[in-house]
Design brief:
The structure is a single chain. With 370 residues, the protein is of the alpha/beta class. The protein has 2 domains: 139 residues, Alpha-Beta Complex (Aspartate Aminotransferase, domain 1), CATH 3.90.1150; 225 residues, Type I PLP-dependent aspartate aminotransferase-like (Major domain) (Aspartate Aminotransferase, domain 2, 3-Layer(aba) Sandwich), CATH 3.40.640. The chain has 13 helices and 12 strands. Helix 8 links the parallel strand 5 and strand 6. It starts with a helix and ends with a helix. Bound molecules: pyridoxal-5'-phosphate.
């Protein structure tokens, strides 16, 4: 019998869709618009540095906080970009931002604590919160809704900007409200840098002394390093002390070769590759939006990450499974992200321009045939 804690854990619907898509793939060409990871390979210089680290014998545990060189590079990046004064001891390198998020929540959540999350938002948030005995409180990210959702049990808010699944960025007034009224702000900035229009804030801009901020970020999305499992938590010394205890006990240290490889993410040659990737994502985004508007679907303002989350005016789950079985196009049903996603689907444009176009043409056919 599984533990009660685990019974509250929901499976990741995108993985269910993926496994059905992979079954169908044995006989048909499936277009994958469900997966949330860059189709690009990791930049060459990063891969080479990882190989070099292995060859040079960096195959052991590191300090649980992570190697100092990488923490220095990360702190320098924030200090120069946001004119703050953080130091490497404010940072712990984790096995992906997933682990960072779990550590962040574990360090502050007590039984019964409420955590505000956006409706819709990344499905892991609610699972992590429930697993830790907390209560996820879904709400719209408007000041009015936040005012209604807040209670004396509110311990934290998770702000994910740019957001999965909306592809939007969070407004300044939401940060300002959160910093005034909520004890902790967990800021999941994993899509930071993948912004095609407008400005995306970092939580650090509202809290330079990191009094309330637990910032979680990583290398998976911007640097196409999903498989390397490398991320980090950035916060004040007290929180970091707590996270360090968790890391020591649960994970010991983040993957060593990945830590060395990630050092190259900060170099000029990598920047060039990343900028090309960003340009290509933007081209694909425009393509998806053109089709979505043609289909007459209601869409928000996706200007970042690599997702579009249209309301299709009917049950998104039924639509997604039917489309996959009939036209072999895989999309993620919106309901897994929150009740507001019931009539939505998530289209990920982390696939080639040609494949996306083919997928959208098949959707057009599917809609015309009904
Ligand atoms: N946060 C969000 C919003 C995500 O969409 C994802 C992955 O899809 C993650 C965190 C986890 O990323 P990783 O653990 O690869 O850093």
């Amino acid at each position: 019998m599984l533990s009660k804690r685990l019974l509250n854990f929901e499976s990741f619907e995108v993985m269910d869709i993926l496994s059905l898509a992979q079954k169908l793939e044995k006989e048909h060409k499936v277009i994958h618009l469900e997966i949330g990871e860059p189709d690009f390979n990791t930049p060459k210089s990063i891969v080479e540095e990882g190989i070099k680290a292995l060859k040079d014998g960096f195959t052991h545990y590191t300090d649980s906080r992570g190697i100092l060189e990488l923490r220095e590079k990360i702190s320098n990046l924030y200090n120069s970009k946001y004119k703050v004064d953080i130091n490497p001891d404010n940072i712990i390198i984790t096995g992906g931002s997933s682990l960072g998020l779990f550590f962040a929540l574990s360090s502050i959540i007590d039984e019964g604590d409420e955590v505000l999350i956006q409706n819709p938002s990344y499905p892991c948030y609610k699972n992590f919160i429930r697993f830790l005995g907390g209560k996820p409180v879904f709400c719209d990210f408007t000041v009015e809704s936040l005012e209604k959702a807040i209670s004396n049990k509110t311990k934290a808010i998770i702000i994910n900007s740019p957001s999965n699944p909306l592809g939007e960025v969070v407004d300044k007034e939401i940060y300002e409200f959160a910093y005034e009224y909520i004890p902790y702000i967990i800021s999941d900035e994993i899509y930071n840098g993948l912004v095609y229009e407008g400005k995306c804030y970092s939580a650090i801009e509202f809290d330079e002394n990191l009094e309330k901020t637990i910032l979680v970020n990583g290398f998976s999305k911007l640097y196409a390093m999903t498989g390397w499992r490398i991320g980090y938590v950035l916060s004040n010394e007290k929180i970091i002390e707590g996270v360090l205890k968790l890391q020591q006990n649960l994970f010991i240290s983040a993957p060593t070769m990945s830590q060395y490889a990630a050092l190259k993410a900060f170099e000029k040659e990598t920047e060039k590759e990343i900028n090309n990737m960003i340009k290509e994502f933007n081209r694909r985004r425009k393509l998806v939006l053109k089709y979505v508007k043609y289909f007459g679907w209601e869409v928000n303002n996706p200007i970042a990450a690599y997702y579009v989350f249209p309301n299709i005016g009917e049950d998104g789950r039924e639509f997604a499974y039917k489309l996959l079985k009939e036209k072999y196009v895989a999309l993620t049903p919106g309901i897994g992200f929150g009740s507001k996603g019931k009539n939505c689907i998530r289209i990920s444009y982390a696939n080639s321009y040609e494949n996306i176009k083919e997928g959208l043409e098949r959707i057009k056919e599917f809609l015309n045939e009904r």
